[in-house]
Amino acid sequence: MRWTRLIAALGSLLALAGLVACGSDSSNGGLPSDRPVLGQKGKEPKAAEKLGFPDFATKNTTRVGGGDTVADAAAIARAVFPGANPQTRPPAVALVDKDDWQAGVAASVLMASPLRAPVLLTDGSSVPGATQSALDALQPRGSAVAAKGAQVLRIGDAAKPDGLKSLDLKGANPFALAREIDRFRSVVAGRASANVVVTSSESAAFSMPAAAWAAKSGDSVLFVTRKGVPPETRAALMSHEKPKIYILGPTTVIPKPVAKELETLGKVTRIAAIDPVNNAIAFARYTDGSFGWGVVDPGHGLVFANQGRPLDAAAAAPLSASGTYGPLLLVDRPNLLPRPVEDYLLDIQPGYDRDPVRGAYNHGWLIGDQGAVSPGVQARIDALLEILPVDRGGGGGGKGRPGA
User: Fold this and answer.
1) Which of 39, 201, 266, 371 could join 245 in a cystine, given CB atoms 3.0 to 4.6 angstroms apart?
2) Which residues contact 89 (CB under 8 A, 6 or more apart)?
3) Pair 75, 139: CB distance under 8 Å
4) How far is CA 131 from CA 51, 75, 82, 313, 342, in A?
5) pLDDT at position 404 over 70
6) pLDDT tier for residue 397 given thresholds of 50, 70 and 90
């Protein structure tokens, strides 16, 4: 199982390599200079690096190394939907403007079954080259009846691509747009979700983990402000008829009076921690019946992104809803793995007693180039994801901890 996951990850890596690179090198036939190149021979002094190791992949991590979120989204959509046959093409694709993180987080729910629409990004009135290339390769099938055969769902002010049937989801503000996405999601699913995630429209980093859960679960994301519950959000919650409302974020971003207001619309539970890094970990650990990741043991996929690139949450959401699945975790600096993340990974690090082949394994997707997550941090994450023998010496029962 472990080798199967690694081979699949490397296959996706090579398929998407051209999308995530930034520069080009004329000595390499015009290929991007940081793109893994197949067919390197032993005489090449940097054959390993040119094949993509260790920056693009290690034994326990795979990097989607886009220099910006547009490239990340295109690459991830191609990794999740390789497009070699109709079954590996998405029914539709959601287009979001690259500067509208609220739209991206809310639209991530469209990746959930049955629609399975990944988010791609546009730039004002234009469709960037990486996005257009992804659309050409994905060839959305337009097979969702509830979407009226649309191949592209234009979210908010996203640009309109040529040659594809589009359906527009509009809203005058982030709250109205999230309500419209929620309404559409209910139509596609045939019912309103029993659970709703409510998060801050003003604090992107605290809201980012909601995208991963929405894509996996189909639970819509709605927004509030520090001052209260906007009427559009209130109307959306009322359409769910007393849902379970999970507030994502501490009282510093969603104050207690706002939570009190939400209590008139459904049962409210807060998932929170003092900062975005710890907030994401709290969400990864949390479970309440069928709601929540509940990742408190080994054997999971994990996604790592930099909190300074909020739309990477929407770009990466398909990785949380396919493959190894798993919650979104955050780093706050590219060159340092936050101690709370390190401690969390130690808590869920796999171990084996007799044979690692029979063990459970963790895998990490890293989103962004070295400016988002450095190779040093990647190496540390790789070590913390590695399965280790259980140390029974000295009367203890723990695993060996590399670098601890």
Assistant:
1) 266
2) 81, 83, 138, 139, 140, 141
3) no
4) 25, 9, 15, 17, 34
5) no
6) very low
